[in-house]
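User: Quick sanity check before I run a bigger batch. Here is a single chain. Can you write out its predicted 3D structure?
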Amino acid sequence: MRARVNIITLIVITLISFGWYFSLVSIRYIVPVILIYIVINIVGASKIQLNYFFVSHCKGITENREIALTFDDGPHPEITPSILKLLEDYNVTATFFCTGKNATQHPHILTEIINKGHIIGNHSYGHSKLFDLFSPSKMHGEITDTNTALTKITKKSPLLFRPPYGVTNPMLGRALKKTNMISVGWSLRSFDTVKNNHEVLKKLKSNTKPGDIVLFHDTVPNTINIVKDYLIWLQESDYKVVSLTSLLKIPAYEE
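Assistant: Done. Predicted structure follows.
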C-alpha cells in the first residue's frame, strides 16, 4: 500500500510542478499534497490492520464461529498464572506475546505457558515507549535478544512477533525481514488497560466476529475477570476459541 501512495504522491507533485512551470497552477498546491501524504503515513503506522508498511496477520479467514485469544506484555508473576488457571478451567489455548525482559525475570512462568499447551511470541525485549524511533539495527537487536531469551528457557524459537503498541514503520519492516519473523496484529482490541470491566465486556460482546484475534494484556488485574466473563459469553454464543496458528494457518516456531 505504501508503494502505491508514494507513486501517486510523486505523480501529483510532478504534475503540479509541470503546471507551475507553465504557469497553469500555483506551486502552493504542493503543500496540501505533502500534508496529506504525512497524515496517510501516520495513520498507516498507527493502524497495523492496514498493512501499510508490511503485512501483519490481524484476522483469520473462516466462516466458523472461531476466534483466537492473545495476551501481551507478560509474563507477570501474579496475573499470568491466574490467567493460565482460568484458561485451563475452560480448556482454552491462547498466545502470549512476551517481552524478553519479563521472560528473563520469570522463566518458570514462561515454562508453565508452554507446558499448558499455549503459544509464546516475541514482543520486543523492553517494550520501550521509544521503540518506534529505534534504528533497524536496534530493533533487530531487540527481536533477536528476545528470541534468544525465549529459546533458552523454552527450547522453542518463536516466529511470531507483535509490534509494541501495534505501530509499524519501514525500520521495523527491515528488522522483521532480516529476522524472518511473522508480524501478528489483532482485529479486536479489548482496551483492558484503560477501560472498566463493564465497558470492555460490552465492546467485546458487540464486536466479536468469526476469525477475530482478540488482544488482552496479562499485566493488569482487571483482565482476569474480563476474560472469565468473556469465555462464559463465548460458550453461550457458540463461539470456539482456537489456537492462533490454527486460525491463521501459520507456524509458531522454527523447525
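The longest strand covers residues 66-72.

User: Great, the batch can go ahead then.
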